[in-house]
Amino acid sequence: EEYLLQKVANINTSNSEIVTGLLGEHVLMISNRKPIFSNDHKIRNTTFDLYLLEKGDNYQALSLIEENDTLPSIKNVGSAYYHQADSTLWYTTADNPRKEDGNTLKIYSVKLQNGSWSEAVPFKHNSPEYSCAYPTLNNEGNQIFFSSNRPGTRGKLDLWYCNMLADGWSYPVW
């Protein structure tokens, strides 16, 4: 099959725009388009925020929804994944972006209920000692896949998964 690759109009800036998934008919995007003013060169333009894009007749012309109540207010997002089946947004964030020895990334989830987002729920296996990041779930929502540098990794970040059990997420395996 042949595919036609086309640039999306009206969205791209001189910074980074990264599509992370869909939220219904909308597109989820993270971007560092808002400038950060800091004397610390390590954190300039490294903080990403979550945005929602609206499509017109197709995905060629997306428009940024500037002010909306559709998304929870999440700052410093590393990725976001919306699981349609249970209306849950899973995301990665760095709790302390100015930490000198590097960030510890953590996974959180928020559930969309009656048009409002729940309070953020930390992933059971988050730790201050290592990162858990970049979550995605299978279609049924009973397995979560993520990256982590937790003990037992073979490299810097390895792929891990957990199964949903009656009492919550199983211990991570790879």
Give a brief description.
The chain is mainly β. Helix content is 0%, strand content 41%. It has strands spanning 17-23, 26-31, 49-55, 62-64, 77-83, 88-94, 105-113, 116-117, 121-122, 132-137, 143-148, 158-165, 168-169.
Q: What does the model show?
A:
- With 174 residues, the chain is an all-beta fold.
- The protein contains no helices and 13 strands.
- The strands form three sheets. Strands 5, 6, 7, 8 and 9 form a five-stranded antiparallel β-sheet that branches. A four-stranded antiparallel β-sheet has the order 1-2-3-4, with no helix packed on it.
pLDDT below 50 for ≥5 consecutive residues: which ranges?
Answer: none
Number of strands: 13
Broad shape: globular
Largest sheet: 5 strands, antiparallel
Question: Strand pairing plus helix content: what structural class?
Answer: mainly beta
Helical percentage:
under 10%
**Count of separate DSSP helical elements:** 0
Radius of gyration: 17 Å
- List the secondary-structure elements in sequence, H or E: EEEEEEEEEEEEE
- Average residue-wise pLDDT: 84
Counting copies of identical and different chains, the oligomeric state is: single chain
Give the DSSP E fraction (strand runs of 2 or more residues).
Answer: 35-45%
Separation of the first and last Cα atoms: 34 Å
